[in-house]
Amino acid sequence: MIKKFLIILTTLTLVISLAGCGTKANTPSTAKEKTKVSLALLRLTSSAPLFIAMEKGYFAEENIDISPEWFDAAQPIAVATASGKVDVGATGITASLYNMAAAGQKIAIVADKGREEKGFSSSALLVTKPLYDSGVNSVPAIKGKRIGITQKGSTFHYMLGRILEVNGLSLNDVELVPLGKLSAIMAALQSGQIDGCILNEPNITKVETAGYGKTVVQIGELIPYQTSGLFFSSSFTQKQDLAVRFMRAYVKACNYYYDNAIRNTSPEKKAEIIKIISKYTNAPENDVKLGLPYIDRNGELLTSDIKTQIYWYRDHDMLKGNLQTEQIVNTTFLEKALKK
């Protein structure tokens, strides 16, 4: 009787064991599930590394499922990131962002997403073609003119102020016209409601191709400027492993962009990059190829310029409080990503 019981027990144990093995073989329980990360961004050429990372699967390689959320101006992205409505923001570095940080909101600028450099088309001052043809083709010549920007305290406001000052003028020498959206600026320039504006790629090339605006000067020809950055929300910075994985994918995309779009290592890969940017910006490929901006190969920030921006906004009464660069810049995630 005991012998018979032992035989039955052994048989049942073997069956259960085999069933368990079968379950492990057929269920991908050991595979990591992708973590969803919300990303707020604009359809601008300077977002190229993000487009590349999404399109070529670099985020997926790091088990990240990107959920893109599209905006039409920089400030709402900063607000969404600071409030934690999105995990990551990618846009211009504005007075609004600095004021949120100065007020105690936890938001971190973690990497480059585009800067003004000599020889690269990223942001520019444009005027209507009739004005340009009549001789308004320099910064001093826009004195007294109506200049469109997105909003006060924006990157456009900053760029206009800085290039005026470089030329011995000030913001008081022009009439600022805040129009909120990029599309509204372009429409106002086309209709003649404004005399000039600040724009970025691919919109500069769109305007010039359409024939109603002309570039007066590229911003990078006059000032070094960390125009845009990647921002992490406070809650996202607490997810150390995820944040570093995100950054690792981003750096890989920056490498790919720099090597092929900036250094022209491979014409085929450059053509691929142009196609990707065209897909995400809804701009014709011919427009994209004429305005590829400078982006650091490793996504490293021009930190010295962040300090310059903070002082400028404070001096122009657009920043309250005693914000220091180290309160808003956090490069530790990038540094860790570069080590792996």
Set out the fold topology:
Blueprint lengths: L1 H25 L8 E7 L6 H8 L2 H4 L2 E7 L3 H9 L5 E5 L2 H8 L4 E6 L10 E6 H5 L12 E4 L5 H12 L8 E4 L3 H10 L4 E5 L2 H8 L2 E6 L9 E6 H4 L2 H23 L4 H15 L3 H5 L13 H13 L9 H4 L3 H8 L1
Parallel strand pairs: 1-2, 1-3, 6-7, 6-8
Antiparallel strand pairs: 3-10, 4-10, 5-8, 5-9
Helix pairs in contact: 2-11, 2-12, 4-5, 11-16
Features:
alpha/beta, disordered N terminus, 10 strands, globular, five-stranded mixed β-sheet
Describe this structure in words.
This protein is an alpha/beta fold. The protein folds into two domains: 195 residues, D-Maltodextrin-Binding Protein, domain 2, CATH 3.40.190.10; 99 residues, D-Maltodextrin-Binding Protein, domain 2, CATH 3.40.190. Helices cover 47% and strands 16% of the residues. The chain contains 16 helices and ten strands. The strands form two sheets. A five-stranded mixed beta sheet has the order 2-1-3-10-4, with helices on both faces. A five-stranded mixed beta sheet has the order 7-6-8-5-9, sandwiched between helices. Strand 6, helix 7 and strand 7 form a beta-alpha-beta unit. Helix 4 packs parallel to helix 5. It is found in: Periplasm. Belongs to the bacterial solute-binding protein SsuA/TauA family. Keywords: Signal. This is Putative aliphatic sulfonates-binding protein. It comes from bioreactor metagenome.
